[in-house]
Write a structure and sequence with these properties.
About 50% of the residues lie in helices and about 15% in strands. With about 300 residues, it is α/β, with parallel strands linked by helices. α5 links the parallel β2 and β3. α2 crosses α11, α7 runs parallel beside α8 and α8 runs parallel beside α9. The protein binds flavin-adenine dinucleotide.
C-alpha cells in the first residue's frame, strides 16, 4: 500500500463529510431516485444499461429493512414507468440479513417476485465474508423459480469462489464477477493483486465453461483484455455476458468497451445515506480518493 493510500485509509473516519462529498460526488447519482433516473436516461442514450442501487446497508432494525424493500419495489416500478434500460442491485444486509435471515430472505423474495412480474431483474450484491454463505443460499433458493430474473455476485479475491461456481453449476447461473471490495483476512481472501487477477480470469473461464451468464465487473484493462479473449475463445454472442463498471470510473474505458460492440452496464447508486457508504468505500479502497485527488489537483 502506498503512503498516500495508508494515510487515507487510517484517517478516513475523521475526514469531514463535505470533503468526503467531494470524492464521492462523481460516484453517486444524487440523493433522490429522480437523480438515478436522470443518470440512467443519459447513459441509455449512449447505449449503456444501468443497475440502480439505493444506498444503505448493515441496518439497525427491521423497520429499515421494510423501508428499503418498499424503495426497491418503487425503483422497479419507476424503471418500468420511465421505460429505462435498467435493473436493480440490492444488498442482503439492507434487507435485514445481519438481524434476521428469514426476514431478509422474504424481503428479497418479494422484490424478486415483483421484478419477475415486471419482466425485470435483481442482482444480489455480495458483502463481506460473514454474508457469503447466506447470500449464496438465497440465490440457490430463488434461481429455479426466478430464472432470468435474479443473479448473484461472486468475488474473485475469495479463495472459496471456484468451489462456489462448481457447487452452483447444477442449475441456472447468472453471476456478476468482481474482484471484491471488503477488507478480508488472508485466510479467506487473496491479498496479492497479481493473484487476484489470475483468480478472476480462472473463475471467469470456469463460469463460461459452465454456461453461466456473467456480468464482468471491472475497470482493470488487463482483465477487460483477458475477458475479451475468453469471449472470443468460447464464441459467446453479445447476449451471453455484459461488462459492468461503477458510475464515475474511467469513462474512456467505458467508451472503448461499448465501441468494441460489447454490452455495458453502469452501477448507479443514489440516496441520502451516501456519507457512511462513501467513507467505507474510501477506507476499503483508498485508490478512489487517489483518483479523485488526481482529478482535483492533477497529481
Ligand atoms: P482495480 O485494480 O481496483 O482498478 C483497476 C483500475 O481501474 C485502476 O488502476 C484505475 O485505473 C481504475 N479505477 C478503479 N477504481 C477507480 C475509481 N474509483 N476511480 C477511478 N478509476 C478507478 N465488490 C464487492 O465486494 N461486492 C459487490 O457486490 C460489488 N459489486 C460491484 C459492481 C460493479 C458494477 C463494479 C464495477 C464493482 C463492484 N464491486 C463489488 C467492487 C469490486 O469488487 C472492486 O473493488 C472494484 O471494481 C475495483 O476493482 P477493479 O476490478 O476495477 O480493479
Amino acid at each position: 500500500m502506498s503512503l498516500l493510500n495508508f494515510l487515507i485509509s487510517k484517517s478516513i473516519m475523521h475526514i469531514p463529510g463535505p470533503l468526503v462529498g467531494i470524492f464521492a460526488k462523481s460516484y453517486i447519482a444524487g440523493p433522490e431516485l429522480n437523480d438515478a433516473v436522470r443518470v440512467t436516461k443519459e447513459l441509455n442514450s449512449q447505449g449503456i444499461m444501468t443497475t440502480i442501487d439505493i444506498l444503505g446497508e448493515f441496518i439497525k432494525n427491521l423497520d429499515e429493512a421494510e423501508y428499503y424493500r418498499e424503495r426497491c419495489i418503487e425503483i422497479l416500478d419507476t424503471i418500468k414507468k420511465e421505460g429505462l434500460d435498467a435493473n436493480l442491485s440490492l444488498k442482503p444486509t439492507q434487507m435485514g440479513l445481519n438481524l434476521n435471515k428469514e426476514v431478509a430472505f422474504n424481503n428479497i423474495l418479494k422484490i424478486v417476485d415483483h421484478a419477475k412480474q415486471l419482466g425485470n431483474f435483481v442482482r444480489i450484491d455480495m458483502e463481506d465474508v460473514t454474508c457469503t454463505n447466506d447470500t449464496i443460499d438465497f440465490y440457490r433458493s430463488l434461481r429455479g423459480k426466478y430464472q432470468g430474473h435474479v443473479g448473484v455476485v461472486l468475488q474473485a479475491y475469495l479463495r472459496r469462489t471456484p468451489k462456489d461456481v462448481e457447487n452452483l453449476s447444477d442449475g441456472p447461473m447468472n453471476f456478476r464477477l468482481c474482484k471484491g471490495i471488503y477488507n478480508e483476512k488472508r485466510v479467506h481472501a487473496y491479498k496479492d493483486p497479481y493473484i487476484i487477477n489470475q483468480s478472476f480470469i480462472y473463475i471467469l473461464e470456469k463460469m463460461f465453461q459452465k454456461g453461466a451468464y456473467v456480468g464482468i465487473a471491472t475497470h482493470d484493462e488487463k482483465l477487460v483484455f483477458e475477458a475479451t479473449r475468453l469471449i472470443e475463445k468460447y464464441g459467446l454472442t453479445r447476449d451471453k455476458y455484459e461488462f459492468q463498471m461503477l458510475l464515475g470510473v474511467d469513462e474512456e474505458l467505458r467508451r472503448i468497451i461499448v465501441n468494441s460492440g460489447h454490452r455495458l452496464r453502469v452501477y448507479v447508486p443514489f440516496g441520502k445515506d451516501w456519507l457512511p457508504y462513501s467513507r467505507r468505500r474510501l477506507k476499503e479502497n483508498p485508490n478512489i480518493a487517489r483518483h479523485a485527488l488526481r482529478q482535483l489537483f492533477g497529481i
